[in-house]
Amino acid sequence: MGHFSISDLEQLSGIKAHTIRIWEQRYGILRPVRTATNIRTYCDDDLRRLLNVATLCGRGYRISKVAQLSEQEMEKAVMACNDDSNNYCQQVHALMAAMLAMDEVQLNYLLNSSIRRMGFEQAVLNVVYPFLQRIGVMWQAGSVNPAHEHLVTHLLRQKLMAATDALPAVNAASVRRWVLFLPEGEMHELALLFMNFALRARGHHVLYLGQNLPIDGLLEVCQAYQPHSVCTVLTAVPDRDQLQGFVDELRHVCGSATVLLYGPVAQTEPLQLPPHMIRLQLMTDFLAFADQMQEAMAEPA
């Protein structure tokens, strides 16, 4: 069970700490326990309830009315609110509350609803990514159970693969060719799976090699496939003191292909980038690059 400070609640919910204290004292919304040094701490149930309260208040409900709702009534009201495709914050709050309850059915319903209303790519960018960022904050604070992360990751991986599988096949001979891979020891695959979907949706051909690929295996692939671009996501590996050596070796292995680096490890400073290697800070930077390549394909020779 998580243990949150009031500043954690503020960061995760977007509700100011001052407002949280008022809601707690005046309406009994939350029931913190106090440490031996008289510091309030909050549990998963408190955070889940606060997220639901924030969702309802964001839709115009009066806090005095929300405070009178039972847990079941509040969840039903939140579900009724989750039909606005433009209110991303409310959708993220609903997902977090479902995750904390380990409610896989609810998570699946909420994700499917966002995808249906917004389209797959926009739902990932505007709802799923902020949701994952919130989980990351909770992970850093030591207040999220690994089981929560595994539940979400597994469900999102399923949806990414299903959405990609539903796209039409592309002839590699007539379009831009990409290789996507994660280096040896890297297992964080969600961002790479989304890149795979986004490229295929734009008509690129992708050779998806997935997790944990030794770099000597990549050499054989590049020699045979001759990709225009190679992309990798560096979330946990390599170690920062080994990053420059990895980048230099990757440049050598990939021949004339443009190499794109994404992920937190890739942002390490200082890093000397070899020619034709690009460091991407945001997923939208990657999508913009893919769009440029798509436009270049469409131009007459």
TrEMBL record:
SUPFAM superfamilies, per database record: Cobalamin (vitamin B12)-binding domain, Putative DNA-binding domain
Gene3D superfamilies xref list: 1.10.1660.10, Cobalamin-binding domain (3.40.50.280), Methionine synthase domain (1.10.1240.10)
Domain named B12-binding: residues: 175-301
Transmembrane stretches, start-end: none
Domain HTH merR-type: 3-72
UniProt entry tagged with the keyword Calcium: no
Keywords: DNA-binding, Repressor, Transcription, Transcription regulation
Keyword Zinc: no
Name the UniProt record assigns to this protein: MerR family transcriptional regulator
